[in-house]
Structures are given as structure tokens and as C-alpha cells.
């Protein structure tokens, strides 16, 4: 994936292995109005949800509504419905359950509450913080998913396995990964700092109004200044960086205050996906990642609030996915087809031949921590659309690359002309919206051969890949 900076002259900016995105969470309008009338839980039908913004919004509202009964949620892709877990609800048909169903979710009673799963994670932290291990909450199984890479053997494996066994098979499971957990410094459209190579993920506006981008924190602590070409002059300087610890993100400010930083992702072949908002991750949703080593790849979100024990230290609060990545992809953008920024590539195991786990820094958390907002504050082609009324096409403002952004039921919110495949069809946020086409076709097309699927891989020898 890539970003563009335009300091008086038009220039493509590297976005990839270590890039990130910043933005104020601007969720799409809620397509899940409560049903009126019938309050019988057995007759309430879950809402069909197509946009990631609507899914994220409903999940957040229900977490607040259910309180201590909330035990996580996930997106059922086959049914296009949000499933919310509830625990400790007497009889299973209390008023709170009915309210959740009327809000549009499918309600599922589970054994483990969010607090109980958090206690399990704390026990793992206390007893099994071992390099090469990770754990994340998986709401689909209502358990903590523990993973150990190939370096966890002998006494380390015994300690991890005994800790998981002590938690119980109904609370936690453990699996082996063939690869090795590592950070992926490198990326989409590469950026270069000293001997390191990363990528910029999403352009943002810093709290003081200056143009900037978010990237992986392990890139930000590796080098202070970054260029958009190997051996080039620096164009941006690290302002804030977190790694390891409570996240893996950095805010990097452009040195030229006149730089325009469009809110889009370059997916190769002169094609861009407009980034319209930042959204929280929901397990089960399809996501896309762009990186300079491996190009465009897709997969699903598998777990939230992941803890990863890298060789450099422990990082918490990450998103676990099955999207592949390789060295050079660090900081690359994780986003959805409808233009929601989700995460920044942190690290993982495996590669794009055999698969593996990949972890991402949530964009919403990075934005909150740095005080940045997504995009360039509404300037240029990152605007919110000239016509954004109900049922109207907002493509004039955001649709320079074919991405409409309507705000009402039945609005158009296509990904644009990205695939040569009519990807700019209706994908609005109301009931009955279409969510067709789009990036799936691009994934296949760009990854058919190393020349296209690997993006800027020819540059990966210029600097240390992360």
C-alpha cells in the first residue's frame, strides 16, 4: 500500500512495511436502527450489515449496552450479521438480550465472560511471557487463543502448555506455528531511514495541524528521519513512537509544512483506495493489507487485544489476523473494502507462501494516543464529498478515484474503479445494500506473478527489511 505526499510538486510517498494511518474515528452512519413493535425475542431478525463502519458502530454500542454481560462480538460473513456474546444472563431472555436483538445483533449465550477471559490473559502474562508466544481473545470460540512459534520448545513449551492446561480447555487453547514471530520492518511504498526500510501506511493530521503519517513503532524507534527513496534526503521526522509496550505505532511529521497528505492507499497499477474513516476491528470481517514486499493481500480478523512476545519485548493491544506478510511489510495499511482504516502491520510469523499469523496495531488506538486525525483535515482529494445528503452520491468530493461516500440508507459507497470490474457499484450503509466486487479481484490480479503481486519488491535490498 502506499501514500502520496504533494509538497508543491506531485510525488508518490512510500507506504508499506512500516507505514500507518492516522485519523479521527469517523464511523459510517449506523444501518442498524432498532426494530419497532414486536418485543418477542424469538421473532426479532438480526440486521444484515454490509459496511465495516456499521458493524464496528453496532459492536461498540452493544458493548456499552450489555455492560458486564458483554463477552465479545464477531461478524458472521456468511449471514452478514453481527453476533454478540452474552454471559451471566439469567434465563437468556432478559430485557438486555431483547434490547441487543432489537438493535440488530444475533445474540449468543456463552460460558466465559469478558472479565473471565481477561483473567486468563493475565495468568498467561504472569506465568508464560515467553518470546515467541502470543494470545488473543477469540469471540467465535469464547476462548483465549494461545500461539507458540517454532522457537518455543523444551522447558518453554512445557511451561506454556501447563499454564494453558491450568486454565482449562473451556477457557484457552494452544497451537503451534511453523514460523517465528518477528517484526516486519519494510513495506508498501517503501520509506527509508538509515539502514532501515519501512513504509508509510495512512496519512494523518497531527494535533498541531501539521501533515504527518502513522507507521509502525518499531520503525519509529529504529530511525528518527525517513526518506521516500533509498539514499534520498529525509522528508519526515519521527514525533512520537511506542514500541515495545502498549502498542506498536509512531507519528512521523512531514518536514515540509506545505505537504498535502491525501487519505488513500496505493494498491498498485496506478489504483488507489480512498480511506474515509477509521474503525475498530471486528473479528470475522474481511480485511486487506498492502505492503511493499508482498503487495496486496487479504484475510480475516481472528482475535482482538492480542499480546505478542517479540524478541525485542512484549507488545499488547494488537489485532490478530490470518493475512500473510513478510519482512518489508511492517507498518503497511490494514483496511476494508469500504474504506475503513483498521490497522498498521506490526509483525508475525510465516510468509505469503505458507501463511501464518500477522498482528496489527489498531489505528483508532494510535490516533487517540498521538492526538492525530485521519487524512489531511479535509483538504484536497481527501474531502468528505460535496453532496452527502441521504440517498445522494458523494462521489464528487471523495470520488476522484471512483469512491463514492453516501451517508444515508441506500447511498453509494463503492470502492471505485479499482478492479476494472465495476467495483464502483452500490455498497451503501442501509438495509439491502450491495457489497459486491471491489478488492477481491485486485488481490488475485496483483498477486498472479512476482512482478505485480510483490509491489516494490525490487527495492527490498535497499536497506534492512522490517
TrEMBL record:
Cellular component per GO, a single term: extracellular region
One BP annotation, GO: proteolysis
UniProt cross-references to Pfam families, sorted A to Z: Pro_Al_protease, Trypsin
Coiled-coil stretches noted in the UniProt entry, renumbered to this chain: 100-127
Any one GO molecular-function label of the UniProt entry: serine-type endopeptidase activity
CDD domains in the record: alphaLP-like (cd21112)
Keywords: Coiled coil, Disulfide bond, Hydrolase, Protease, Serine protease, Signal, Zymogen
Record-annotated active site: 218 (charge relay system), 248 (charge relay system), 330 (charge relay system)
Disulfide bridge positions per record: 198-219, 324-352
Signal sequence region: 1-33
UniProt keyword Hydrolase present: yes
Domain Peptidase S1A alpha-lytic prodomain: 112-167
Domain Peptidase S1: 212-367
InterPro entries: Pept_S1_alpha_lytic (IPR004236), Pept_S1A_streptogrisin (IPR001316), Peptidase_S1_PA (IPR009003), Peptidase_S1_PA_chymotrypsin (IPR043504), Trypsin_dom (IPR001254)
Name this polypeptide is given: S1 family peptidase
Disordered as annotated region, ranges: 378-466
Top-level taxonomy: Bacteria, Bacillati, Actinomycetota, Actinomycetes, Kitasatosporales
Entry-linked Gene3D superfamilies: Trypsin-like serine proteases
Biased composition (Low complexity): 414-428
Family: Belongs to the peptidase S1 family.
Source organism of this protein record: Streptomyces roseirectus
Amino acid at each position: 500500500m502506499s501514500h502520496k505526499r504533494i509538497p508543491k510538486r506531485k510525488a508518490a510517498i512510500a507506504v508499506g512495511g512500516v507505514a500507518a494511518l492516522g485519523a479521527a474515528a469517523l464511523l459510517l452512519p449506523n444501518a442498524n436502527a432498532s426494530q419497532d413493535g414486536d418485543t418477542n425475542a424469538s421473532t426479532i431478525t438480526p440486521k444484515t450489515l454490509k459496511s465495516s463502519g456499521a458493524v464496528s458502530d453496532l459492536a461498540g454500542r452493544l458493548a456499552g449496552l450489555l455492560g458486564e454481560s458483554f463477552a465479545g462480538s464477531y461478524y458472521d460473513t456468511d449471514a452478514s450479521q453481527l453476533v454478540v456474546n452474552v454471559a451471566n444472563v439469567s434465563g437468556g431472555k432478559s430485557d438486555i438480550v431483547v434490547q441487543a436483538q432489537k438493535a440488530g445483533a444475533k445474540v449468543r449465550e456463552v460460558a466465559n465472560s469478558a472479565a473471565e477471559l481477561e483473567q486468563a490473559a493475565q495468568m498467561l502474562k504472569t506465568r508464560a511471557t515467553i518470546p515467541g508466544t502470543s494470545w488473543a481473545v477469540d469471540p467465535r470460540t469464547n476462548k483465549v487463543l494461545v500461539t507458540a512459534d517454532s522457537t518455543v520448545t523444551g522447558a518453554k513449551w512445557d511451561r506454556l502448555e501447563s499454564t494453558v492446561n491450568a486454565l482449562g480447555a473451556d477457557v484457552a487453547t494452544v497451537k503451534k506455528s511453523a514460523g517465528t514471530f518477528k517484526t516486519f520492518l519494510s513495506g508498501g511504498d517503501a520509506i527509508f531511514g538509515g539502514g532501515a526500510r519501512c513504509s508509510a501506511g495512512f496519512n494523518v493530521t497531527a494535533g498541531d495541524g501539521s501533515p504527518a503519517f502513522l507507521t509502525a513503532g518499531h520503525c519509529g524507534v529504529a530511525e528518527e528521519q525517513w526518506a521516500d527513496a533509498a539514499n534520498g534526503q529525509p522528508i519526515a521526522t519521527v514525533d512520537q513512537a511506542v514500541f515495545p509496550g502498549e502498542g506498536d505505532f509512531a507519528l512521523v511529521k512531514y518536514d515540509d509544512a506545505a505537504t498535502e497528505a491525501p487519505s488513500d492507499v496505493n494498491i498498485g497499477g496506478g489504483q488507489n483506495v480512498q480511506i474515509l474513516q477509521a474503525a475498530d476491528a471486528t473479528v470475522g470481517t474481511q480485511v486487506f493489507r498492502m505492503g511493499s514486499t508482498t503487495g496486496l493481500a487479504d484475510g480475516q480478523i481472528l482475535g482482538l487485544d492480542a499480546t505478542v512476545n517479540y524478541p525485542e519485548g512484549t507488545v499488547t493491544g494488537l489485532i490478530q489476523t490470518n493475512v500473510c506478510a513478510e519482512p518489508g511489510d511492517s507498518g503497511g495499511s490494514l483496511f476494508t473494502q469500504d474504506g475503513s482504516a483498521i490497522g498498521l502491520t506490526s509483525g508475525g510469523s510465516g510468509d505469503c507462501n505458507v501463511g501464518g499469523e500477522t498482528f496489527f496495531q489498531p489505528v483508532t488506538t494510535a490516533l487517540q494516543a498521538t492526538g492525530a486525525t485521519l487524512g489531511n483535515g479535509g483538504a484536497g482529494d481527501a474531502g468528505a464529498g460535496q453532496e452527502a445528503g441521504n440517498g445522494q452520491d458523494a462521489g464528487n468530493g471523495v470520488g476522484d478515484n471512483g469512491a463514492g461516500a453516501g451517508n444515508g440508507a441506500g447511498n453509494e459507497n463503492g470502492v471505485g474503479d479499482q478492479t476494472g470490474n465495476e467495483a464502483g457499484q452500490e455498497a451503501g450503509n442501509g438495509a439491502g445494500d450491495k457489497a459486491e466486487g471491489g478488492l477481491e479481484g485486485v488481490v488475485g490480479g496483483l498477486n498472479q506473478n512476482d512482478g505485480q503481486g510483490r509491489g516494490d519488491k525490487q527495492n527490498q535490498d535497499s536497506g534492512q527489511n522490517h
